[in-house]
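Input structure tokens:
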């Protein structure tokens, strides 16, 4: 495994991280989830990402249970706050009340004394950014969290947050967690350049496009019965990818991977990591074999010729915007 610092911070995370969206505490059984986390840890993954909203806290419970056996200093634990955790008017968003209360709840579910990276799961236009940043800063000063980050914020929102933190002498956010993969590249236009300039790193999710970039879905064919796309509980975000033109490009990408002696998933992850502003690509895994295959992506070197070949394929679906 290789490690990178997130933005200008001193926090080093594995180039491949393990997440729990749509899997742990939901689609994946507890024992299987714990086995995947254990294998990831053995292979050098030190970055584990979850969120309070993933199955209303169940993912945090599973991740916390799995990691409890390991020295706390040996891994980087990330979770998030924003989405509803109840039916009350203050059970959502980025108010001081919700942030502080949900941080305490996440600490209890995870069974730890502190969270390494606490992320604002979305931007909250109903709350002043100063209130949100002061709450995060207070949690850092109290030792409840070590760093703060955001997820799916725009370049302008990130820039404003950095400016306020600098003006008010607050701890700055160090990370953004956006979707980023060969098929969804919107952050390249504004978010990534802005973050690189401001010292904010990316810890990207869905580098395999919900499994589409593993090659399991073929143009003109029915989805495999055991796949996520066949599960009505988890396939909402996959459906828009399953167009024949998109899947035809995926087949071409798979051929490029084969020419390099790699799997398509390894190629896809290595492609995201070509960006130095990307500190980690967060994978999901429901089987140990998926973890073992995907961590090998850090060993795959992509030459300029290979990158040009990939760009030619991706150019065929310019303008494609999936639901995510």
């Amino acid at each position: 495994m290789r490690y990178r610092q997130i933005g200008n911070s001193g926090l080093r995370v594995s180039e491949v991280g393990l997440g729990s969206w749509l899997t742990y505490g939901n689609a994946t059984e507890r024992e299987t989830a714990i086995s995947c986390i254990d294998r990831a840890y053995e292979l050098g993954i030190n970055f584990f990402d979850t969120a309070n909203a993933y199955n209303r806290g169940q993912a945090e419970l599973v991740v916390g249970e799995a990691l409890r056996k390991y020295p706390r200093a040996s891994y980087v634990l990330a979770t998030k706050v924003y989405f509803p955790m109840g039916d009350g008017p203050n059970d959502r968003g980025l108010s001081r009340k919700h942030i502080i209360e949900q941080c305490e709840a996440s600490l209890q579910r995870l069974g730890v004394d502190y969270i390494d990276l606490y992320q604002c799961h979305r931007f909250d236009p109903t709350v002043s950014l100063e209130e949100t940043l002061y709450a995060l800063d207070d949690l850092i000063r109290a030792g409840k969290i070590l760093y703060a980050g955001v997820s799916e914020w725009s370049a302008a929102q990130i820039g404003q947050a950095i400016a306020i933190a600098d003006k008010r002498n607050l701890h700055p956010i160090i990370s953004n967690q956006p979707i980023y993969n060969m098929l969804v590249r919107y952050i390249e236009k504004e978010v990534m350049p802005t973050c690189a300039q401001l010292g904010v790193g990316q810890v990207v999710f869905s580098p395999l496009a919900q499994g589409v970039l593993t090659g399991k879905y073929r143009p003109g064919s029915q989805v495999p019965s055991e796949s996520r796309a066949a599960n009505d509980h988890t396939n909402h975000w996959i459906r828009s990818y399953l167009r024949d033109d998109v899947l035809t490009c995926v087949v071409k990408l798979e051929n490029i991977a084969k020419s390099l002696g790699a799997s398509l998933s390894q190629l896809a992850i290595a492609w995201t990591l070509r960006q130095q502003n990307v500190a980690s690509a967060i994978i999901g895994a429901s089987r140990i074999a998926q973890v073992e295959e995907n961590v090998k992506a850090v060993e795959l070197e992509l030459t300029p010729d290979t990158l040009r070949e990939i760009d030619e394929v991706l150019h065929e679906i310019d303008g494609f915007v999936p639901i995510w």
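Strands lie at 3-5, 12-14, 16-18, 47-49, 76-81, 115-120, 145-150, 175-176, 201-205, 278-283. The two ends are 29 Å apart (CA to CA).
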